[in-house]
Amino acid sequence: MHIEKNVCENIIGTILNVEGKSKDNLKSRLDLVDMGIRHDLHPQELRNGKFSLPPSIFTMSKKEKEVFCTVLKDIKVPDGYASNISRCVSVKDRRLYSLKSHDYHILMQDLMPVALRGCMSTEVTSCIIELSNVMKAICGKVLMVEELDKLQDRVALTLCNMEKIFPPSFFTIMVHLLIHLPHEAKVGGPVFYRWMYPIERFLSKLKSYCRNKRYPEGSIAEGYLAEECLTFCSRYLEDVETRFNRPHRNEVCINSNLAETYLFQSFGEPLGKVEIAQLDDKSWVQAHRYVLFHHDSTEPLRTEFKEELQSQVRSRRLHQRDIHKLFIENFHDWLAKMVWCGREVSEEVKWLSQGPNRIVKRYNAFLINGFRFHTKSRERLRRTQNCGVVVTSSTTSYASARDNHPVVGDVEYYGILTDIIELDYYGKQKVVLFRCDWADVNTARGIRRDQFGFTMVNFSRLIHTGHQLIDEPYVFPSQVKQVFYCPDPTKEGWYVVLRNTPRDLIDIGEGNRDDIEIRSETLPFAAQNLDRTIPSSSSQFQWVREDMDEDFNEN
């Protein structure tokens, strides 16, 4: 934790050229003269006896510093993700003030790479982004031993590339300790079990006990004893919220009776005021159709209707794309007619075919899967951003309107949450749906990757507006994950996608590849450096372990 904080402080102080914090000064340039290296950075003596420092590759102009600070000033992060870092940024002075250890942690791993994209050269930005990816991988909740071996080589390559950019004075003992972090994680396990954030928070709590500055030890002892007494007494209290039964910030308290009335594990905990609203015809069809297409009991009927459509339109020579469109538009009407005509189906299918009540409950916030979601209108004046969503969906792609061999694959859709509704199937079942504006993924105009591997989206180009009957703006809350968007200062209308992970949940499954892996492979120096064979990190420290074993045996 302290290594990451000091390394980030070195980088920010050097690229912003903060007085007293920068590692690039006259003394560091004179060191280059003594060592006889980096002749392009040697100071030039003026007539008045002073020295002029030539600009280096990591030197930022005033405008670039303002862009860097503006990005950090305007960015909004999800609730509970970090503190309000914008209060520590001064665009006028082009500096960052009063940053805590966790602020450096967030800057190093997520925010600083995004802010540097449009401010510095590709070489410097790629090197800092790769260092950020390494730190993010080390601090992951799940660590793979094989990946840590590769990470050891990546750290060595990153430090070598940094030595080509920054002066020798930049590489303090904290920077050199980066080489040991993958091996330490391999031996000690995940980092968050061992870092100092809980300890420092506890020390801050003890410091708050001080009431008499003349006797701080006595104040801390009395405050700690009083809290221990209250904690002991709280063990005998029932139906009272104490430190032992207090729920987490984004934890959902599931009622077993209510859970049985919700479909698709979409139950969560709504927040804020409940609003009663009525759906229009198009929204009602879109919401009801999405429920039918994702319910297991309707799967045989969906297959039957597809076969019936293919037999009916065979004489009309329609293509697969047209058949798929007819299926989406007419399945809910066909199901209702089949049940009305006396088709033998289950009770579940009968009340599903009737459709939900047009009177729905509307919320503006929702807790589910460890995430806190807000609608776009709710957080308009807030300093947090909780409306970003991403869903991975199996999508049928057509090369053209006449394509009879579509390709089925998983596609990530990025959206902004605009509405939260609860459908009621007349007391039988309930289901919560998110209505979102989805960025266009079919063309390069709506989503793309930049040269550093960041995913970028443009919400001025949507897949659909939701005004057509065939549009699908709804999704289940259990299907989405939370992301947040940072405006790109170089391209108006584009946003950089940053992912959020729930604090109290750990996904031990393999899942999809993380963004940091793709980002590392996309960096310019990755292709030419990562292909080289590097000695294994375990052999580098083998002699140290042998010497320690010999000393231990002698003792």
TrEMBL record:
Residues 138-250 form the DUF4218 domain. InterPro entries: DUF4216, DUF4218. Residues 421-497 form the DUF4216 domain. It comes from the Eukaryota. PANTHER family: DUF4218 DOMAIN-CONTAINING PROTEIN-RELATED (PTHR48258), OS02G0543900 PROTEIN (PTHR48258:SF15). This is DUF4218 domain-containing protein. It comes from Hibiscus trionum (Flower of an hour). The lineage of its organism: Eukaryota, Viridiplantae, Streptophyta, Embryophyta, Tracheophyta.
